[in-house]
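Task: fold both queries, return tokens.
Query 1:
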Amino acid sequence: MSAISSIIKDNVVDHWRKDFPILDQKVNDKDLVYLDNAATTQKPLSVIETISRYYSEINSNIHRGVHTLSQLATDEYEETRKKVQQFINAKNLNEIIFTRGTTEAINLITRSWGEAELKPGDEVIISEMEHHSNIVPWQMICEKTGAILKVIPMNDDGELLVEEYKKLINEKTKMVAVVHVSNALGTINPVKEIIQIAHDYDALVLLDGAQAVAHLPIDVQELDCDFYAFSGHKLYGPTGIGVLYGKENLLEKMPPYQGGGDMILMVTFEKTEYNELPYKFEAGTPNIAGTIGLGAAIDYVSEIGFEAIDAHEESLLQYATASLQEIPGFRAIGTAKEKASVVSFVIDGIHPHDLGTILDTEGVAIRTGHHCAMPVMTHFKVPATARASFALYNTRTEIDVLKAALIKTMEIMGV
């Protein structure tokens, strides 16, 4: 870690920042301070150039063409599948399904696995800190199948109560679907323990990894999760592309999520024979450029390495937490011992939306609202929070700018 620390001291972060052209601009005549990375990360030049090169040099549909451009596009598309497999250490390529994002991946599971497997009286467990995308699809499928939805509570630090989880789970539990890292709180959940407990009851586990993949090394075999979902745009990649990992034996049993081209082997008016994995779940023309761009993003993150990323982001989190707590009326929402680089907070007497609006005039971009996690807001008895979330290209200087902008906001609002 000392070597990593020395690298960061040598201003490698400045070098990383130069890879992101969007950061070199002014907003409202102020230098942009982008602290909304939990919503979406910015894209390095290598990703932007990869997408541009696809459209300018090899744009073609994949899998169906014998001409050169189609073959080149297909090769690059499938090369990304290999990169994803290696990135999360999946056992084989058939376990990597491309989706539009985490939300579609979760809906794929609820519609395909859920409709086929859940029966009246079966139980599904989620947690109190889930994003709406890991709440609403389970509510919908439970209502449709007669299954029962249960919720793991959390404490006021924003940590899941594992002992309560142990009381909820039983032989009726068929699926446990929990977030790896909370988008609203930054909490890193003890997912390996959660998985082991679920498997003791023969229940499956889906992890929502949208907020984890840019901050933590993911090894799905070591975790032993049954499904893992994440989005490219939170991993310095394009929007509209995501991944569902699933154990091959489970995916083999699941019916297709959508019907159409590429997910078939033979179609007659009497019967359709479905394609093999992974194509059974990839109906229609996919986001080819986005997929290839995701491959470039994985290359970028892999080259830097999670040791360096984690050391830098942990330093930012500690600095921001200590610095912002000096502001009168500041209250952090989510103070778990294990956290990713997210600070959610409120300031007495100022609505978070007002904070976000005035901060924008200072060039500071944060997220305000319920963060698609209304039950979290209900737990903490707040209508919304302000959220500053950090990425590998953020700096302590930017945190200082955030702090000064918050103090100025308080002066403007008369607090």
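Query 1 returned. Query 2:
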Amino acid sequence: MDKGLQGKPELLLDLVKTKMPFGKYKDRLICDLPDAYLEWFSRKGFPKGKMGVLLQTMHEIQLNGLQDLLIPLKKKTMR
């Protein structure tokens, strides 16, 4: 990730609100994508644009075991 999450709190909200627009996990929330799928993107290359940033961010979160940070945000958006 280039400059991390500093100054981009909306990025975390986007992880719990945005659905995967294509592929095997189409319509699944980015925060709910399996580790193996994100690892595959890491090896093959993340897409360009915002979707690539979201997938790369989620991959970093999973690599560092920080998924629990998204739980309160996910609960908040499900109300």
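Both queries returned. Flag for query 2: The CA atoms of residues 44 and 52 lie 12 Å apart.
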